[in-house]
Amino acid sequence: MPQYEYHGTSRTGQVVNGTRSAPSREALDAVLRREQITATRIVEKGREIAIPKPKVAGKISPKELAIFTRQFSVMIDAGLPLVQCLEILSSQQENKGFAKVLAGVRSSVESGSSLANALRQYPKVFDDLYCNMVEAGETGGILDTILQRLSAHIEKAVKLARAVKSALIYPVAVVVIAGGVVFLLLWKVVPIFSTLFKAMQVDLPLPTVIVMQLSTMAGYAAPILIILIPVGFFAFRAYYATPNGRMMVDTIMLKLPLLGSLLRKIAVARFTRTLGTLITSGVPMLEAMEITARTSGNAVVEKAIMSVRKAIETGRTIVDPLRETGVFPNMVVQMIGVGEQTGALDSMLQKVADFYEDEVDAAVGDLLSAMEPMIILFLGIVVGGIVISMYLPMFKLIGKLSEQ
User: Fold this and answer.
1) Measured between alpha carbons, how far is 304 from 68 in angstroms, rounded to an integer?
2) N or C: which end of the chain has fewer CB within 10 A?
3) 97/311 Cα distance (integer angstroms)
4) If DSSP codes are grouped into helix, strand and coil, which group holds residue 5?
5) Count of H helices and E strands in the chain?
């Protein structure tokens, strides 16, 4: 009979591995289940089977990933074999692309790969943070606990992303719509009044002359803007994709009034949550810092975290390098320092993350409350100014007629 190497966990969470003879992988898996061992990897000695990787079709949202992770943790905690969990989850997925990914992961695990290595085949779905935490869970025999932490982390990340969208989409949408309305007034409506005023041969007030000149410019600029706006958008995306462009844009964003403060709080919340989750899950500090830097979402914060990582690599503590970056608030640095001294860095990071996530919620509400009256005032002045400037000559003409 062929010999198989197996890795798994007992009901008490203890890591179990070894080599046994069995007629097949399925037979050995059944024997291990009877011994209350959940196999995470069974591979025939001297043999590796390469499983073709299916192409990922469509986008997989963080919400779908969080739901999958939560369901996966429940199944593992209930004692279901790993392959069976993946088979059930792939069969019930509504997203066909995600279903194909899970089927590929199941095939790799079934052929003897560890779950972490199987997930690493799909970096666009499972990032470094996800794979490293799963690997730590497999090694420590606490895969169900790690998956629960992962699902909670992803859900909180989704909440933070929603906060960013709430802060940016509303004012941007209002300004874009307002700009479109003003441009339409200048391009189509004002020329009608211009033709009327020329026919009436009246002296035009200065505001009316300015608006009419702007209208003439808008008529010439319309075809150019139709070309420039999409070209400018794609040029900006290409520039932002470069390291220097990303650094410059992210630096400017952090310095913006109101919005910069909010983005800094979001960056701190993401940094502390990610690092705290990784350390709690048993990922080594240097590796956790590198993963946290790559998932920070801001080039300035990423550079700061990597500089802290280099300092830790030379034997320094985390506090002084964090303070030297100038990116993180003093309160955050001091709390992390207390956590490091007391040996409770992971729990302190989670507490800081909870605090700053609440701060982000409050800051989003304050930002929208502050911007709403400013936007309304701006629209009132611009649109009202155009309308009044068009009616001023009529008021002047009515005044002359009444004198006659």
Assistant:
1) 33
2) C
3) 42
4) strand
5) 16, 3
pLDDT digits (tens, 9 = 90+) for 44-99: 775 544 444 445 545 788 888 888 888 988 888 888 888 888 889 888 888 888 88
Which tokens hold the place of 347?
């729990």
Report domain 143-404's class. mainly alpha
CA distance 59 to 76: 26
Cα 152-93-31 angle, rounded to 5 deg: 85
Task: Return d(Cα 105, Cα 293) in angstroms, integer.
Answer: 27
* Residues contacting 29, CB < 8 A, separation 6+: 39, 42, 81, 83
CB 160, CB 360: distance < 8 Å? yes
Specify the pTM.
Answer: 0.64
Residue 156 CA, distance from chain mean position: 10
Element (H, E) at 298: none
Superfamily of structural domain 49-126: Type II secretion system (T2SS), domain F (1.20.81.30)
Which residue is listed with tokens 């502050």?
A: 370
